[in-house]
Every structure is written in structure tokens, then in C-alpha cells.
Amino acid sequence: MLKIENLHASVEDKSILKGINLEVKPGEVHAIMGPNGSGKSTLSSVIAGKEEYEVTDGTIVFDGEDIDELAAEERAHKGIFLSFQYPVEIPGVSVTNFIKTAINESRKARGLEEMPAKDMLKLIREKADLLEIDRNFLSRSLNEGFSGGEKKRNEIFQMAMLDPKLAILDETDSGLDIDALRIVANGVNKLKSENNAVVVITHYQRLLDYIVPDYVHVLYNGKIVKSGTKELAHELEAKGYDWIKEEVNA
């Protein structure tokens, strides 16, 4: 589903990614961990097509198509979803109106007509119930006055509605207490299937107790320097990252 080869990227002429290789197949969950400043959020932004990042070498192939030249919204229409670490507030735009617009724009890009209002309402109710979201929540302005947990749950609700092929969760666990973390993780687990894939970017092993990865990759200094199973995450939790840095720099 996603194949990244020798990816180099920079922002404001500062080189951040220095040769990333990663392959994600349908049905898989990949966790990307690493110390601060190693390039984790840059990698998610580059896959999603944020334009302030410049790809200087390498390729990103999604669903068999080279997407290097595609804008962020074109990548979204093709099924790439990025959950933000710090979701922005949009006063005056309700959660429901935002999601209706996003779905219909995506349908339009694929040559489909707008989803009938009746079907949209049914889908919204189904997904809200699935994620244990209060209906009143849906009429509130997007992220305005939301707690950290509500913002993250709203991101997972958007993911549920848009039904992406590839969901990238960029530090979805930051700022969440244990209850909010469990709710968000349960939502992700309910949405996983054999036809989609999830990339989880996190500092902490605790999220991976709830969203169990098939593979764990350690990103350090712009490269994936170690890969393994979920046991690698436990090792990082116990020992930190210094031993990884020593291995790389030896």
C-alpha cells in the first residue's frame, strides 16, 4: 500500500529525513518511535504532502502510484489521512458540517455525486455510536473549546467517516489521560481492517498496549535505524534510546 524508498526531505534548507525506507501492506499496523527531533512528524507531513517540506530525493508510492507531485488534498482524496498532533480550532464550522464537506469533496474528486443527506446522517450516527461520541458534540464548532481528549476523539471520528486506506496518527497520545487514550485507541482498533493500514507515530510504549503494532521502527537522525516487533517498544520503554544511539554511532 505504501512504499517509501531512499526518502530525503528538508524544511527551510535544513535536511531532516536522510534516506527513509519503509513498506506498509494492507492490514498492517506500523509504529514509528524515536527521540525528539529525529524526524517522525516530518515523515508524516511529507507522506501527507504538506507543502513546506521539500522532498530532495527518493520516492513515495501509494497504492501503486507515485504521489511525489500530488498536493495534500489530492493525496487525501486517494485515501491518505493524517491525524494532527495539535488539531486547529475552526470557530463557526460545526463538526458535522466540516465532515459533510470533506466527504463530498472527496466524492467529487472521484467523480461521484454528493452523498444524499439521509445517508450522510445515518453514517454520522453509526460512526458516532461506534466511537461513543455524544450527539451534542457533533453540533459544536470544530475543536473550539475542546479538551485534548475531545480533539483527538474528533480526529478519530473524521477518520471513521472518511474511511481512508492509510491512516497516519501523529502523536495522537500526546496530552491524553489514560481514559481518553483508551477511547481513542478503541476507535482505531474498531476501524482497522484487512483493506486499510495504520502508521502510529508515538514517543511512548503505553499507546502500543492498546493499538498493538505488527512492526515497530526506530527513527533516529532522519533514518530508520532499527525495526522489530512490539517487543522492541517494550525494550525502548525499559532502556530509553541511548543504546540505539550508541549502536548507530559505534
From TrEMBL:
Superkingdom in the source lineage: Bacteria
UniProt cross-references to NCBIfam families, sorted A to Z: sufC (TIGR01978)
A GO MF label: ATP binding
InterPro entries reported for this sequence: AAA+_ATPase (IPR003593), ABC_transporter-like_ATP-bd (IPR003439), FeS-cluster_ATPase_SufC (IPR010230), P-loop_NTPase (IPR027417)
Keywords: ATP-binding, Nucleotide-binding
Domain ABC transporter: 2-246
PROSITE patterns for this protein: ABC_TRANSPORTER_2
Gene coding for it: sufC
Family under the similarity heading: Belongs to the ABC transporter superfamily. Ycf16 family.
Highest classification ranks of the organism: Bacteria, Pseudomonadati, Bacteroidota, Flavobacteriia, Flavobacteriales
Name of the protein in question: Cysteine desulfurase
